[in-house]
Amino acid sequence: MSISVSTPPSVAFLNGQFSAENVIKKVTRSGDLRGVFHDGDSWQAISPETPIYEVEMLRSPQGEGELYAGVTHLQPGRVGDEFYMTRGHFHQRREQGEVYFGLKGAGLLLLQDEKGDARLERVSPGSVHIIPGFSAHRLINTGNEILSALAVWPSIAGHDYASLTQGFALRVVERGGKVQVREVQNG
């Protein structure tokens, strides 16, 4: 009997780069993030072509029991006083969770349930974040270098951005050289 041994894709934990042939890349630019940042005037002052984050994802089968793996690379920077962040989302299938692993940089993971209760977790190299079902989530880069995080999630989870039209309950800003968290009053 002949047993074959294959080499699976790998990720370089120092920079978050995949080594695989089946990587899908998507860049999200400032112009794609209308309404995400609180200061609309500062957002409009940035070129809409400014890259804010890139997601690299392994091409994977879709369906019940299948998983996606991807790395988000979030640039350092601010729009006004608010740190660069990902759009953030719930899963279309709310019960589906996700796992993030901090690879590089420093930042925060913002988690919010459907009632609007929010909390933050520090993201750093080696950190592990269990994102429970029914939780919206967003990465925020509070550092001076790219923030990279590896994510694993069910391929059936989907993304629901529309449920966050009012945004998240917390904003992370820089004031006087320090990271500060503000509660957002909607309505």
From TrEMBL:
Class in the EC hierarchy, top level: isomerase
SUPFAM superfamilies: RmlC-like cupins
One Gene Ontology term, aspect cellular component: cytoplasm
Pathway it works in: Carbohydrate degradation; glycolysis; D-glyceraldehyde 3-phosphate and glycerone phosphate from D-glucose: step 2/4
Enzyme Commission (EC) number: 5.3.1.9
Domain Glucose-6-phosphate isomerase prokaryote, residue spans: 29-184
UniProt cross-references to InterPro entries, sorted A to Z: G6P_isomerase_prok, GPI/OXD, RmlC-like_jellyroll, RmlC_Cupin_sf
Catalytic activity from the UniProt record: alpha-D-glucose 6-phosphate = beta-D-fructose 6-phosphate
GO molecular function, one term: metal ion binding
Alphabetical keyword list: Gluconeogenesis, Glycolysis, Metal-binding
Entry-linked PANTHER family: CUPIN TYPE-2 DOMAIN-CONTAINING PROTEIN, OXALATE-BINDING PROTEIN
Protein name: glucose-6-phosphate isomerase
Organism of this sequence: Dryocola boscaweniae
